[in-house]
Amino acid sequence: MKVFTRYFIKTPKLFFGFMLLIFTVSCDSIVEIEIEDVEKLIVVNSVISPDSPISVNLSLTRHILDNAEIQQMIPPKYNPNIKLFVNNEYSEDLAYNEITKKYVSSFKPQIGDSYSIEIIQDGYEPVTATSVIPENVKIVSIDTATIDDDPGGSSYNGGYGVFVSDENLHCEIEIDDPEGVKNYYMISMSADVSRMEWRDTSYYVVDSVFFNEIWYTELREVTSYEKYTRYLNENLLFSSGDLSILFHDYQGYVLDDSFFDGKKYSIKTKIPVQNLYSLDSAIVTIKVKTLSEDYFRYLNTRFRHYSSKDDFFTTPVIVYDNIEGGVGVMGAYSTDSLSFSVSYTNPWENREYIIYE
Predict the structure, then answer these.
(1) Using one digit for the tens of pLDDT, what is the confidence trace for 223-261?
(2) For 189-194, what is the mean pLDDT?
(3) Phi/psi class of residue 162: alpha, beta or left (left: φ > 0; alpha: ψ in -120 to 50)?
(4) 267 and 179 within one domain
(5) Which of 91, 169, 193, 311 lies 20 to 30 angstroms, CA to CA, from 229?
(6) Structural contact between residues 197 and 226, judged by C-beta atoms closer than 8 angstroms
């Protein structure tokens, strides 16, 4: 062993050449993995509520190496027969809507009823799913206060191009949770505000007449602009550090009643004031959705799946589904909401140019 070591120390070029040969040979190794091509399944996506008719989106699963777009199951290539059952009794066949590309019912569902679908499509296994719309939990009250969370400080708001104070509209949303029933909630907010909408609508009107073989022309300039426009922000930016919050996504904050089963509970949130700037009063709507267990489990596992998919040190999370014969989810929710008005104006806006109709 000593002779071998001394030999390579005295001939470093030969040593590095030998190591390079080893790495080169190893890089040329090719490992072929055969992935079985599994049968395609029907994917169901349906979330029902009393606010709108039942709608069902259908698509097909893809192979793990397939980069093609998701294949929607829509006419004329596919003509699935989707039967709707209410409390286990046949009600109607869902009709295809050309605008939404979904299959819809002719009526709105009701709280407490059980809704099931049965999907038949040639070449695929029959698919069934069931969901029940839960009783909506009422909002007892909403308490608000405008608080500067960083007195004397300021932050840059690129949307307005100005420095603004760190003022927030704090909201405490009180709900009365039913005792002995496991409930799941989603908090979401929207704001209806008015903003200036300057538009260059200058144009020319040409009046002309042909008389005695001569064209007589009158040119008039007309200039107008829209004084303001209403804007509905359906996904209003807000935050919450409440201990009951489990996770949140683009739809809102999700929680359950583990900490307050059978009690009144106030969920604390805050909205940046600059998101509520308006020429006149802004209308803020707070919604509390009561989720079915199936829908909650789907949202929870979907959030955990996307949160861990790029982390090699975590166990992959399989997204929950409740579809028999296929994959996907059929969930449900009911909603209670309250609205109130607030008035916040952009302090950097030149008010003398604002013209109200």
Answers:
(1) 655 566 788 898 899 999 999 999 998 899 999 999 999
(2) 93
(3) beta
(4) yes
(5) 169
(6) yes
In a domain, residue 272? The reply is yes
Of the listed ranges 113-117, 195-199, 323-327, 340-344, the one predicted with least confidence: 195-199
Which of these three, 132, 158, 186, is where a domain ends?
A: 132
How far apart are the C-alpha atoms of 129 and 166, rounded to whole Å?
Answer: 48
Percentage with pLDDT > 90 across the chain: 58
Separation between Cα atoms, residue 313 and residue 72, nearest integer Å? 35
Question: What pTM value is reported for the model?
Answer: 0.76
Question: What confidence tens digit (pLDDT) does each residue in 294-317 have?
Answer: 999 999 999 998 888 777 677 888
The tally of domains found in the chain comes to 2
- Rounded Cα distance, 152 and 32, in Å: 63
On whether the CB atoms of residues 343 and 144 are closer than 8 A, the answer is no
Q: Which CATH number does the domain housing residue 177 bear?
A: 2.60.40
